[in-house]
Structure formats: structure tokens, C-alpha cells
Amino acid sequence: MADEANRAAFMEIQASMIELTGKLKQVQNQMRNKEGDKKRAFLTLEELRPLPEDTNTYKSIGRTFVLEPKAVLQAEQEQKLKDSEAAIVSLQTSKEYLEKQTAEVENNLRELLQQEPGIAQQIMSMSM
To answer: Which UniProt keywords apply (predicted)?
Structure first.
């Protein structure tokens, strides 16, 4: 009976570890994407700033380019930059939380293996 309980506990810990690892990878990918968006907005702003106000500027919409005033494009890029920074901060908080959860699950697994050393052999025999 204790073996079944330990096995069930291991399976539960393993499932939560797999879930947390997947969520952590997803958050890391989202952070990478937002970093790219932030960099693109920053570089675009750097190119727009030195241009005179009366310069014709175009905004890409799909395959079409639409004439927009420089001020509008600059405001859009500044907003994208701010939004990306806010999203990165939020994702960083999520990442830290998920890392803490992962560490907690790892500690639970260690405790289980220390309490019941024989379960490691059972787990190995289950995987073969």
C-alpha cells in the first residue's frame, strides 16, 4: 500500500514538474519575443528622431505602405517600447514565480526519495 502511495506521489510530482517546465519555457520564449519587439521599436525610434518633421514617413500595413506623419509613427514606436518593457517586467515576475515553484517541486521529489530510498529502484524499473 505504501508503495502505491509513493508511486502515486512520484507520478504527481513528475506531472507537475513537466507542467512547470513547459510553462517556464513558454514564458522564456515570450520574453525573448518581447525583447525583440523592444529592440525593433528602439532602433526605429533612433532612425526617426533625426529626421525633419516635414519628412514623408510611411507605415507598413501588411504589404501596403501608408503615409503617416512622423509624430504619429514616433508616438506608436514609443508606445510599443513602453508596452514591451511593461510586458517584460510582468513576464520576469512570472518567470521568477515558476522558478520558485520548480525548486519547490524538486525539493518535494528529493524528500520523497530520501524518505523512501527503495522508490528510486522502483522508478527505475518502471521506466525500463
So the answer is: Chaperone
State the number of CA atoms in the 13 A half-sphere of 33 facing the CB.
8
Kindly state the helix (H) or strand (E) to which residue 122 belongs, with its residue range.
Answer: helix 118-127
The residue to which cell 514538474 is assigned: 17
Cell 512520484 belongs to residue: 10
Which amino acid, one-letter code, is at 43?
L
Q: Residue holding cell 514564458? A: 27
Q: Residue 69 has what DSSP assignment?
A: -
Whether residue 18 contacts residue 82, with contact meaning beta carbons closer than 8 Å, is answered with: no
What is residue 57's three-state secondary structure?
A: strand
Q: What are the tens digits of pLDDT across the range 39-63?
A: 999 999 999 999 999 999 999 999 9
Q: Is the pTM of this model over 0.70?
A: yes
Query: CA torsion sign, 110 to 114 to 115 to 117?
Result: positive
